[in-house]
């Protein structure tokens, strides 16, 4: 028999005792004693009187059978330890209870100490291991010291298991909460979503939580309220310094020191991002946080920081997507989205003004992009000043939009007049005094089918009409404009297959020399014959081809076909004719244009001196230096150049002498009344004289009668082209005409 120390005495069974459990406000440890012997309950209570673990007392609950214990355990899951008799109403009642606890209740945290009074009875080691039993003692050897030692070990194990369970549950909760945080797209919503998880992890009421944020790029640099619980009187965006609250000190300290504070009566979780965003979440607490709670809050802070960076990134992307960086107005996307929201929420009649700054490209090119940007800012400021209560946006480079209520035509006209008045004075930028005029397209919500994109499209169509007529004017949208646009779009769609399906045909209009009385050239003119017999006018499909870019492909076909036809006529015995081919602006700007001309000359075998390229006066005026360089390259190889529609523009007169051209074509508008209108006759006379002074040939187009011819002969015009001499003809008819004159 082992000798026992004086302090290791056996448990003494007494009927009564009068010692009280220590007075302690901490929640006690719950221990369930399960034994069918009344004396064992009394002895256990006596032995553990005054017992504490980590400053928390012990609350002993008694059960006198396995069935009674089951009832207690099914209702109370906070029991930390069970002192369990193995043999009670049955010899396996204790072990059956263990199976119930572990298997049915799935309670793996409660610690179990088995004890038995049956000599030589002991559960198998396999059972002890399977059911996670902490200890096994015979009642005869369970002294007070050994009981306290076993209980202390069990409670410590229970505390660690609960801490791990709390940590695992907390981490799972953080992961779940973080998924929601990462989905937020605004800081305001993110701040609100933070409150509930923080209150749970910090064991505080959500009504007492305050969320503040600060960023280095903010206007004041101070922290502001982002969200708060119901018990805190703090509105959104309230400055932290203006708060009369107990949280002010702990939040200021956290933001200054860039660290959390989980000690004391006021808690504060701090989070920041690499971009300089800061967040502080604070509350008050009555119970100090344990180790696990502090660690979980620290982990949650990391998740908040990642979500914060993500949300600010989305807000920045949203600013880029919906706000114009230069003027701080809404961009087209933001403007249309806001208009759509207004359309969905109100039936009030509005109009959209689509405003284009006239000649803005000239400002950009002449004074530089910095001045151009300042002009755009001034335009934005003028619109904001004149339409302060209206929605304003910047749709594109120099195009702005204003959405405003207007019930009547009078109100619409008044709004437009107000717009023009806003730009009545010049804009001063540095040493530059710039006059600003605008063209305006106007569309009403009555014709947009409650769709902001349709409204914007209608205003765009109206603006195009306004600019095509004359600058500095406005145009109201009309449904007929939309029909015309649809027709043009249909033409564009059908154009794609027109050449491949041999629907395009070249006709040729002869040109006549007044001095030799001979046909000396032809102009290639394209015609479109659809399979159903419909003839599409070049006036309809050429602008459509220009708009869609298909003019480049069509122009290449025209050049190749015309050159091949000129060579074919020579092989058929006709005298060499000058082949004039019109070149569009889109063709000329194509980077492959010059190479294609050279390749076409080579592949068709045409003599370069028999090829003439016609460019319009307006084309030359637009970018004279580029034309001079490229036309000079073509003329070096013998190709001649003519300026078509001469006299309809103004700018080319000053630099005509520098242009590498061979021929000037007087526009038909001056020939129509040359025999009866003194003004037209004077203009034609001046063009002829100027051309001859510059050693240029002059050809008049649109000649329709003998009287016009006689005036042109009198004025010294070199060549003529028009119905009086020949209409545009099929190649075979040209051949017949020339052979009949030979």
From TrEMBL:
Database matches in InterPro entries: CheY-like_superfamily, Cyclic-di-GMP_PDE-like, DUF3369, EAL_dom, EAL_sf, GGDEF_dom, Nucleotide_cyclase, Rev_trsase/Diguanyl_cyclase
Superkingdom per UniProt: Bacteria
Alphabetic keyword roster: Phosphoprotein
Domain GGDEF intervals: 348-479
Start and end residues of each EAL domain: 488-742
The keyword Nucleotidyltransferase belongs to this UniProt entry's keyword annotation: no
Domain called Response regulatory: residue spans: 30-154
Keyword Nucleus: no
4-aspartylphosphate modification, residue list: 85
NCBIfam families hit by this protein: GGDEF (TIGR00254)
UniProt protein name: EAL domain-containing protein
Organism: Litoribacillus peritrichatus
């Amino acid at each position: 028999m082992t000798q026992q120390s004086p302090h290791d005495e056996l448990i003494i069974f007494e009927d009564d005792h009068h010692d009280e459990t220590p007075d302690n406000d901490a929640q006690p440890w719950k221990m369930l004693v399960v034994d069918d012997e009344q004396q064992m309950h009394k002895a256990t209570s006596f032995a553990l009187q005054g017992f504490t673990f980590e400053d928390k007392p012990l609350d002993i609950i008694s059960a006198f059978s396995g069935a009674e214990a089951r009832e207690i355990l099914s209702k109370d899951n906070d029991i930390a330890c069970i002192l369990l008799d193995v043999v009670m109403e049955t010899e396996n009642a204790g072990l059956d209870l263990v199976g119930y606890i572990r298997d049915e209740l799935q309670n793996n945290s409660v610690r179990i100490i088995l004890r038995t009074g049956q000599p030589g009875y002991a559960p198998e080691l396999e059972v002890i291991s399977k059911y996670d039993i902490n200890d096994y003692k015979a009642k005869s050897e369970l002294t007070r010291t050994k009981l306290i030692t076993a209980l202390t070990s069990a409670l410590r194990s229970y505390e660690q298991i609960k801490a791990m369970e709390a940590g695992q549950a907390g981490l799972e909760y953080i992961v779940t909460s973080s998924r929601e945080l990462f989905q937020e797209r605004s800081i305001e919503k993110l701040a609100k979503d933070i409150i509930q998880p923080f209150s749970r992890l910090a064991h505080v009421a959500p009504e007492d939580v305050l969320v503040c944020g600060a960023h280095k790029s903010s206007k004041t640099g101070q922290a502001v309220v982002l969200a708060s619980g119901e018990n805190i009187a703090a509105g959104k965006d309230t400055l932290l310094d203006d708060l009369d609250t107990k949280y002010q000190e702990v939040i200021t300290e956290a933001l200054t020191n860039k660290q959390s504070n989980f000690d004391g009566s006021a808690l504060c979780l701090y989070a920041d991002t690499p971009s300089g965003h800061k967040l502080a979440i604070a509350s008050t607490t009555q119970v100090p946080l344990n180790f696990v709670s502090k660690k979980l809050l620290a982990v949650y802070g990391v998740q908040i920081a990642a979500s914060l960076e993500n949300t600010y990134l989305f807000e920045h992307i949203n600013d880029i997507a919906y706000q114009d960086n230069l003027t701080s107005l809404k961009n087209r996307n933001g403007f249309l989205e806001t208009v759509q929201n207004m359309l969905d929420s109100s039936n009030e009649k509005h109009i959209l003004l689509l405003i284009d700054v006239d000649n803005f490209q000239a400002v950009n090119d002449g004074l530089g992009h910095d001045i151009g940007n300042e002009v755009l800012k001034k335009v934005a400021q003028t619109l904001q000043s004149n339409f302060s209560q209206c929605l304003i946006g910047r749709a594109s480079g120099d195009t702005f939009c204003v959405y405003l209520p207007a019930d009547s035509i009078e109100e619409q006209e008044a709004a437009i007049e107000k717009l023009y008045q806003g730009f009545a004075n010049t804009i001063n930028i540095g040493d530059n005094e710039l006059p600003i005029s605008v063209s305006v397209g106007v569309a009403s919500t009555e014709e947009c089918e409650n769709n902001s994109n349709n409204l914007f499209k209608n205003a765009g169509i109206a603006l195009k009409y306004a600019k095509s007529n004359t600058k500095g004017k406005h145009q109201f949208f009309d449904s007929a404009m939309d029909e015309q646009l649809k027709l043009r779009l249909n033409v564009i769609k059908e154009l794609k297959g027109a050449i491949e399906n041999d629907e395009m045909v070249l006709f040729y209009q002869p040109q006549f020399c007044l001095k030799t009385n001979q046909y000396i050239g032809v102009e290639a003119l394209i015609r479109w014959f659809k399979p159903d017999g419909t003839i599409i006018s070049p006036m309809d499909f050429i602008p459509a081809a220009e708009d869609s870019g298909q003019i480049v492909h069509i122009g290449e076909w025209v050049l190749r076909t015309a050159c091949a036809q000129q060579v074919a006529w020579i092989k058929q015995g006709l005298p060499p004719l000058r082949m004039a081919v019109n070149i569009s602006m889109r063709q000329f700007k194509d980077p492959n244009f010059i190479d294609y001309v050279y390749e076409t000359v080579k592949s068709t075998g045409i003599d370069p001196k028999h090829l003439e390229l016609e460019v319009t006066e307006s084309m030359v005026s637009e970018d004279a230096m580029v034309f001079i360089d490229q036309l000079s390259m073509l003329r070096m190889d013998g190709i001649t150049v003519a300026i078509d529609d001469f006299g309809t523009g103004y700018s080319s007169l000053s630099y005509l002498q520098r242009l590498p051209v061979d021929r000037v074509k007087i526009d038909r508008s001056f020939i129509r009344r040359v025999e009866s209108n003194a003004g037209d006759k004077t203009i034609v006379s001046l063009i002829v004289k100027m051309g001859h002074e510059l050693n240029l040939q002059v050809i008049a187009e649109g000649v329709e009668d003998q009287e016009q011819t006689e005036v042109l002969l009198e004025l010294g015009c070199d060549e003529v082209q028009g119905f009086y001499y020949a209409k545009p003809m099929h190649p075979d008819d040209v051949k017949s005409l020339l052979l009949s004159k030979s």
